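Open question from group meeting: does this chain pack into something compact, or does most of it stay loose? Before anyone orders reagents, we agreed to write out a predicted structure and look at it together. Recording both the input and the output here so the notebook holds the full record.
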Amino acid sequence: MNLKTDVLIIGGGLAGLTSALHLHQAGVNVILIEKNAYPHHKVCGEYISNEVLPYLKWLNLDIESLKPTHINQLHLTTSSGKSIHTILPSGGFGISRYTLDHYLYLQLIERGVRVIEDSVVDVDFNNDEFSAKTSKNNTINAKQVLGAFGKRSNLDVKLERSFINEKSPFLAVKAHYKGEFPPDVVGLHNFKGGYCGVSKVENDIINICYIANYKTFKNYKNISIYQQEVLSKNKELKNIFEQSDLLFEAPLTISQINFKRKEAVNNHILLIGDTAGLIHPLCGNGMAMAITCAKVASELLMKFFNEEIKSRSSIEHQYTKIYNSLFSSRLRMGTILSSLLQNEKLADFSLNFLARSPFLLRQIIKRTHGKPLITND
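C-alpha coordinates returned:
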Protein backbone atom coordinates (compact mmCIF):
# COMPACT_ATOMS: atom_id res chain seq x y z
CA MET A 1 0.00 0.00 0.00
CA ASN A 2 1.31 3.45 -0.95
CA LEU A 3 0.17 6.44 1.10
CA LYS A 4 0.85 10.15 0.91
CA THR A 5 0.58 12.80 3.62
CA ASP A 6 1.84 16.22 4.64
CA VAL A 7 3.39 15.00 7.90
CA LEU A 8 4.30 11.48 8.95
CA ILE A 9 4.79 11.01 12.69
CA ILE A 10 6.83 7.94 13.56
CA GLY A 11 5.90 6.80 17.06
CA GLY A 12 2.71 7.13 19.07
CA GLY A 13 4.02 8.03 22.48
CA LEU A 14 3.23 11.27 24.26
CA ALA A 15 5.18 13.52 21.87
CA GLY A 16 3.88 11.82 18.72
CA LEU A 17 0.25 11.83 19.85
CA THR A 18 0.37 15.46 20.95
CA SER A 19 1.96 16.69 17.73
CA ALA A 20 -0.63 14.77 15.69
CA LEU A 21 -3.44 16.50 17.60
CA HIS A 22 -1.83 19.91 17.15
CA LEU A 23 -1.16 19.55 13.41
CA HIS A 24 -4.60 18.11 12.71
CA GLN A 25 -6.23 20.96 14.63
CA ALA A 26 -4.22 23.36 12.43
CA GLY A 27 -5.57 21.72 9.27
CA VAL A 28 -2.57 19.60 8.28
CA ASN A 29 -2.93 16.11 6.80
CA VAL A 30 -1.23 13.76 9.27
CA ILE A 31 -0.48 10.04 9.51
CA LEU A 32 0.75 8.63 12.80
CA ILE A 33 2.35 5.19 12.86
CA GLU A 34 2.76 3.22 16.10
CA LYS A 35 3.93 -0.37 16.46
CA ASN A 36 1.92 -1.25 19.59
CA ALA A 37 -1.84 -1.42 20.06
CA TYR A 38 -3.42 0.94 22.59
CA PRO A 39 -3.70 0.94 25.52
CA HIS A 40 -0.34 -0.24 26.85
CA HIS A 41 1.88 0.49 29.85
CA LYS A 42 5.26 2.20 29.52
CA VAL A 43 8.24 2.58 31.80
CA CYS A 44 7.68 6.14 33.00
CA GLY A 45 7.57 8.25 36.16
CA GLU A 46 4.00 9.34 35.23
CA TYR A 47 4.25 12.81 36.76
CA ILE A 48 3.66 15.93 34.62
CA SER A 49 4.26 19.49 35.76
CA ASN A 50 1.40 21.94 35.43
CA GLU A 51 3.26 24.02 32.84
CA VAL A 52 1.58 21.98 30.06
CA LEU A 53 -2.03 22.56 31.15
CA PRO A 54 -2.74 25.75 29.13
CA TYR A 55 -1.49 24.02 25.98
CA LEU A 56 -3.51 20.86 26.60
CA LYS A 57 -6.58 23.05 27.11
CA TRP A 58 -5.84 24.76 23.75
CA LEU A 59 -5.83 21.29 22.17
CA ASN A 60 -9.36 20.82 23.59
CA LEU A 61 -8.25 18.01 25.89
CA ASP A 62 -10.13 17.36 29.12
CA ILE A 63 -7.38 15.99 31.36
CA GLU A 64 -9.56 16.29 34.48
CA SER A 65 -11.92 13.70 33.02
CA LEU A 66 -9.11 11.15 33.51
CA LYS A 67 -9.14 11.78 37.29
CA PRO A 68 -5.44 12.59 37.73
CA THR A 69 -3.96 13.15 41.16
CA HIS A 70 -2.87 16.71 41.98
CA ILE A 71 0.67 16.87 43.32
CA ASN A 72 2.22 19.84 45.11
CA GLN A 73 4.84 18.36 47.45
CA LEU A 74 8.22 16.68 47.05
CA HIS A 75 9.74 14.23 49.55
CA LEU A 76 13.46 13.40 49.21
CA THR A 77 15.24 10.69 51.22
CA THR A 78 18.59 8.88 51.29
CA SER A 79 19.45 5.34 52.36
CA SER A 80 21.05 6.66 55.55
CA GLY A 81 17.76 8.19 56.65
CA LYS A 82 18.22 11.82 55.62
CA SER A 83 14.89 13.34 54.60
CA ILE A 84 13.52 16.63 53.30
CA HIS A 85 10.02 17.83 52.38
CA THR A 86 9.33 20.84 50.18
CA ILE A 87 6.55 22.44 48.16
CA LEU A 88 6.70 22.08 44.37
CA PRO A 89 6.55 25.71 43.15
CA SER A 90 4.22 25.11 40.21
CA GLY A 91 2.89 21.66 41.10
CA GLY A 92 1.91 18.87 38.77
CA PHE A 93 -0.39 15.92 38.28
CA GLY A 94 -0.10 12.14 38.21
CA ILE A 95 -1.53 10.17 35.31
CA SER A 96 -0.52 6.79 33.92
CA ARG A 97 0.75 6.45 30.38
CA TYR A 98 -1.75 3.62 29.96
CA THR A 99 -4.62 6.05 30.50
CA LEU A 100 -3.18 9.25 29.01
CA ASP A 101 -1.79 7.78 25.78
CA HIS A 102 -4.99 5.84 25.21
CA TYR A 103 -7.07 8.98 25.73
CA LEU A 104 -4.97 10.94 23.23
CA TYR A 105 -5.20 8.08 20.74
CA LEU A 106 -9.00 7.98 21.05
CA GLN A 107 -9.07 11.73 20.52
CA LEU A 108 -7.14 11.28 17.27
CA ILE A 109 -9.55 8.61 16.07
CA GLU A 110 -12.57 10.74 17.03
CA ARG A 111 -11.13 13.72 15.14
CA GLY A 112 -10.43 11.68 12.02
CA VAL A 113 -6.64 11.34 12.13
CA ARG A 114 -5.23 8.22 10.49
CA VAL A 115 -3.32 6.02 12.97
CA ILE A 116 -1.60 2.92 11.58
CA GLU A 117 -0.45 -0.01 13.72
CA ASP A 118 2.88 -0.80 12.07
CA SER A 119 6.56 0.07 12.45
CA VAL A 120 8.85 2.07 10.18
CA VAL A 121 11.98 0.16 9.21
CA ASP A 122 13.65 2.77 7.00
CA VAL A 123 13.28 6.41 5.95
CA ASP A 124 14.80 7.92 2.82
CA PHE A 125 14.98 11.59 1.91
CA ASN A 126 15.21 12.38 -1.81
CA ASN A 127 14.04 15.25 -4.02
CA ASP A 128 12.80 17.19 -1.00
CA GLU A 129 10.44 14.39 0.08
CA PHE A 130 10.50 11.57 2.59
CA SER A 131 9.71 7.96 1.79
CA ALA A 132 9.16 5.61 4.75
CA LYS A 133 9.10 1.81 4.48
CA THR A 134 7.21 -0.23 7.08
CA SER A 135 7.44 -3.77 8.38
CA LYS A 136 4.09 -4.56 6.69
CA ASN A 137 5.44 -3.49 3.27
CA ASN A 138 3.66 -0.15 3.22
CA THR A 139 5.25 2.95 1.74
CA ILE A 140 4.38 6.39 3.11
CA ASN A 141 5.51 9.53 1.31
CA ALA A 142 5.52 12.77 3.28
CA LYS A 143 6.62 16.38 3.01
CA GLN A 144 7.83 16.34 6.61
CA VAL A 145 8.61 13.67 9.20
CA LEU A 146 8.58 13.93 12.99
CA GLY A 147 10.61 11.26 14.78
CA ALA A 148 8.96 10.22 18.03
CA PHE A 149 10.21 6.64 18.20
CA GLY A 150 11.29 6.68 21.83
CA LYS A 151 14.42 6.21 23.89
CA ARG A 152 15.98 3.57 21.66
CA SER A 153 14.88 2.15 18.31
CA ASN A 154 16.08 0.20 15.30
CA LEU A 155 15.62 3.43 13.38
CA ASP A 156 18.43 4.93 15.46
CA VAL A 157 20.70 2.31 13.87
CA LYS A 158 19.44 3.12 10.38
CA LEU A 159 20.02 6.82 11.02
CA GLU A 160 23.53 6.06 12.34
CA ARG A 161 22.98 8.06 15.51
CA SER A 162 26.14 8.31 17.57
CA PHE A 163 24.72 7.11 20.90
CA ILE A 164 23.25 3.86 19.61
CA ASN A 165 26.54 1.91 19.69
CA GLU A 166 27.49 3.13 23.15
CA LYS A 167 26.68 0.89 26.09
CA SER A 168 24.77 2.57 28.88
CA PRO A 169 25.03 1.47 32.53
CA PHE A 170 21.39 2.31 33.30
CA LEU A 171 18.20 0.27 33.36
CA ALA A 172 14.74 1.28 34.53
CA VAL A 173 12.02 -0.68 36.33
CA LYS A 174 8.39 0.36 36.73
CA ALA A 175 5.23 -1.16 38.19
CA HIS A 176 1.87 -0.16 39.63
CA TYR A 177 0.88 -0.98 43.20
CA LYS A 178 -2.11 -0.69 45.51
CA GLY A 179 -1.42 0.71 48.94
CA GLU A 180 -1.28 3.78 51.15
CA PHE A 181 0.59 6.80 49.82
CA PRO A 182 -0.28 10.53 49.95
CA PRO A 183 -1.92 11.56 46.66
CA ASP A 184 -0.36 15.05 46.69
CA VAL A 185 3.28 13.93 47.11
CA VAL A 186 5.96 12.77 44.69
CA GLY A 187 8.72 10.88 46.48
CA LEU A 188 12.32 10.63 45.31
CA HIS A 189 14.34 8.08 47.23
CA ASN A 190 18.04 7.28 46.93
CA PHE A 191 19.48 3.76 47.14
CA LYS A 192 22.87 2.28 46.31
CA GLY A 193 23.38 2.65 42.56
CA GLY A 194 20.15 4.47 41.80
CA TYR A 195 17.06 6.38 42.80
CA CYS A 196 13.34 5.68 42.87
CA GLY A 197 10.30 7.85 42.17
CA VAL A 198 6.97 7.19 43.86
CA SER A 199 3.67 8.97 43.25
CA LYS A 200 0.00 8.25 42.78
CA VAL A 201 -1.81 8.26 39.46
CA GLU A 202 -5.52 7.85 38.66
CA ASN A 203 -7.70 5.27 40.46
CA ASP A 204 -5.67 5.50 43.68
CA ILE A 205 -2.79 3.57 42.05
CA ILE A 206 0.81 4.01 43.18
CA ASN A 207 3.40 4.23 40.40
CA ILE A 208 6.91 3.17 41.41
CA CYS A 209 9.65 3.71 38.84
CA TYR A 210 13.38 3.53 39.48
CA ILE A 211 16.68 3.89 37.65
CA ALA A 212 19.44 1.48 38.62
CA ASN A 213 23.07 1.04 37.70
CA TYR A 214 23.45 -2.34 36.00
CA LYS A 215 26.62 -3.08 38.01
CA THR A 216 24.60 -3.22 41.22
CA PHE A 217 21.60 -4.90 39.62
CA LYS A 218 23.38 -7.84 37.94
CA ASN A 219 24.47 -9.35 41.26
CA TYR A 220 20.90 -10.38 42.11
CA LYS A 221 18.78 -13.16 40.65
CA ASN A 222 15.64 -11.14 40.00
CA ILE A 223 13.90 -7.82 40.54
CA SER A 224 12.14 -8.94 43.71
CA ILE A 225 15.39 -9.90 45.44
CA TYR A 226 17.06 -6.71 44.21
CA GLN A 227 14.28 -4.60 45.69
CA GLN A 228 14.47 -6.49 49.00
CA GLU A 229 18.25 -6.39 49.27
CA VAL A 230 19.09 -2.98 47.77
CA LEU A 231 16.13 -0.61 47.52
CA SER A 232 14.79 -1.60 50.93
CA LYS A 233 17.98 -0.38 52.57
CA ASN A 234 16.18 2.94 52.27
CA LYS A 235 13.64 2.76 55.11
CA GLU A 236 11.11 4.90 53.26
CA LEU A 237 11.19 2.57 50.25
CA LYS A 238 11.10 -0.48 52.53
CA ASN A 239 7.89 0.78 54.13
CA ILE A 240 6.31 1.56 50.76
CA PHE A 241 7.06 -1.88 49.31
CA GLU A 242 5.96 -3.72 52.47
CA GLN A 243 2.65 -1.89 52.57
CA SER A 244 1.86 -2.15 48.84
CA ASP A 245 0.60 -4.96 46.60
CA LEU A 246 1.91 -5.39 43.05
CA LEU A 247 -0.80 -4.92 40.40
CA PHE A 248 1.27 -6.14 37.43
CA GLU A 249 2.17 -9.77 36.78
CA ALA A 250 5.77 -8.55 36.84
CA PRO A 251 7.42 -5.11 36.73
CA LEU A 252 8.27 -3.64 33.34
CA THR A 253 11.93 -3.08 32.53
CA ILE A 254 13.96 -1.25 29.93
CA SER A 255 17.74 -1.40 29.57
CA GLN A 256 20.44 0.58 27.77
CA ILE A 257 18.93 3.92 28.72
CA ASN A 258 21.23 6.61 27.38
CA PHE A 259 21.18 10.10 28.89
CA LYS A 260 23.96 11.48 26.71
CA ARG A 261 23.27 14.47 24.50
CA LYS A 262 21.46 13.70 21.24
CA GLU A 263 20.78 15.80 18.17
CA ALA A 264 17.39 17.44 17.56
CA VAL A 265 17.48 16.84 13.79
CA ASN A 266 18.75 13.83 11.84
CA ASN A 267 18.43 13.24 8.09
CA HIS A 268 16.04 16.24 7.98
CA ILE A 269 13.72 14.53 10.51
CA LEU A 270 12.70 16.74 13.43
CA LEU A 271 13.16 14.59 16.53
CA ILE A 272 10.78 15.06 19.45
CA GLY A 273 10.29 13.66 22.95
CA ASP A 274 12.71 11.03 24.21
CA THR A 275 14.02 10.59 20.67
CA ALA A 276 15.58 14.06 20.87
CA GLY A 277 16.82 13.84 24.44
CA LEU A 278 16.20 11.99 27.67
CA ILE A 279 16.18 13.75 31.02
CA HIS A 280 16.95 11.79 34.18
CA PRO A 281 13.60 10.71 35.68
CA LEU A 282 14.51 12.17 39.06
CA CYS A 283 13.61 15.57 37.56
CA GLY A 284 10.10 14.25 37.13
CA ASN A 285 9.49 16.23 33.98
CA GLY A 286 10.18 14.08 30.92
CA MET A 287 6.47 13.99 30.04
CA ALA A 288 6.23 17.79 30.07
CA MET A 289 9.35 17.98 27.90
CA ALA A 290 7.77 15.60 25.36
CA ILE A 291 4.63 17.73 25.18
CA THR A 292 6.70 20.91 24.84
CA CYS A 293 8.74 19.35 22.02
CA ALA A 294 5.54 18.46 20.20
CA LYS A 295 4.26 22.02 20.50
CA VAL A 296 7.49 23.61 19.26
CA ALA A 297 7.88 21.28 16.28
CA SER A 298 4.21 21.61 15.30
CA GLU A 299 4.28 25.41 15.41
CA LEU A 300 7.42 25.52 13.25
CA LEU A 301 5.90 23.09 10.75
CA MET A 302 2.86 25.33 10.45
CA LYS A 303 5.11 28.31 9.70
CA PHE A 304 6.88 26.19 7.08
CA PHE A 305 3.64 25.14 5.40
CA ASN A 306 2.40 28.75 5.52
CA GLU A 307 5.73 29.86 3.98
CA GLU A 308 6.65 32.05 6.93
CA ILE A 309 9.73 29.81 7.10
CA LYS A 310 11.10 29.64 3.59
CA SER A 311 13.44 26.65 3.60
CA ARG A 312 13.98 23.24 5.13
CA SER A 313 17.40 24.26 6.44
CA SER A 314 15.82 27.24 8.18
CA ILE A 315 13.19 25.18 10.01
CA GLU A 316 15.86 22.68 11.08
CA HIS A 317 18.10 25.48 12.35
CA GLN A 318 15.26 27.16 14.24
CA TYR A 319 14.06 23.91 15.80
CA THR A 320 17.56 23.04 17.01
CA LYS A 321 18.05 26.53 18.42
CA ILE A 322 14.72 26.53 20.28
CA TYR A 323 15.25 22.97 21.53
CA ASN A 324 18.65 23.84 22.99
CA SER A 325 17.30 27.04 24.52
CA LEU A 326 14.43 25.22 26.23
CA PHE A 327 16.10 22.01 27.33
CA SER A 328 19.91 22.19 27.51
CA SER A 329 19.97 23.56 31.06
CA ARG A 330 17.30 21.05 32.17
CA LEU A 331 19.29 18.14 30.79
CA ARG A 332 22.49 19.38 32.44
CA MET A 333 20.73 19.80 35.77
CA GLY A 334 19.31 16.30 35.48
CA THR A 335 22.79 14.86 34.94
CA ILE A 336 24.20 16.75 37.93
CA LEU A 337 21.37 15.69 40.24
CA SER A 338 21.62 12.09 39.08
CA SER A 339 25.34 11.98 39.85
CA LEU A 340 24.68 13.32 43.33
CA LEU A 341 21.87 10.90 44.14
CA GLN A 342 23.71 7.83 42.90
CA ASN A 343 26.50 8.51 45.40
CA GLU A 344 25.30 7.84 48.94
CA LYS A 345 27.77 10.20 50.65
CA LEU A 346 27.12 13.01 48.19
CA ALA A 347 23.36 12.45 48.48
CA ASP A 348 23.53 12.80 52.28
CA PHE A 349 25.68 15.91 52.07
CA SER A 350 23.43 17.47 49.44
CA LEU A 351 20.21 16.85 51.38
CA ASN A 352 21.75 18.25 54.57
CA PHE A 353 22.80 21.36 52.67
CA LEU A 354 19.46 21.78 50.90
CA ALA A 355 17.54 21.33 54.16
CA ARG A 356 19.29 24.47 55.38
CA SER A 357 18.79 26.26 52.04
CA PRO A 358 15.13 25.86 50.98
CA PHE A 359 15.44 28.76 48.53
CA LEU A 360 18.22 26.93 46.67
CA LEU A 361 16.13 23.75 46.49
CA ARG A 362 13.24 25.69 44.96
CA GLN A 363 15.62 27.18 42.39
CA ILE A 364 16.89 23.71 41.45
CA ILE A 365 13.31 22.51 40.97
CA LYS A 366 12.58 25.53 38.76
CA ARG A 367 15.63 24.70 36.62
CA THR A 368 14.07 21.36 35.69
CA HIS A 369 10.71 22.90 34.83
CA GLY A 370 9.54 25.40 32.23
CA LYS A 371 7.10 28.28 32.00
CA PRO A 372 3.40 27.64 31.28
CA LEU A 373 2.93 26.65 27.64
CA ILE A 374 0.83 29.17 25.77
CA THR A 375 0.33 28.46 22.09
CA ASN A 376 1.74 30.98 19.62
CA ASP A 377 -1.00 30.32 17.08
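Observations to bring back to the group:
Residues 312-342 form the longest helix (31 residues).
The two ends are 35 Å apart (CA to CA).
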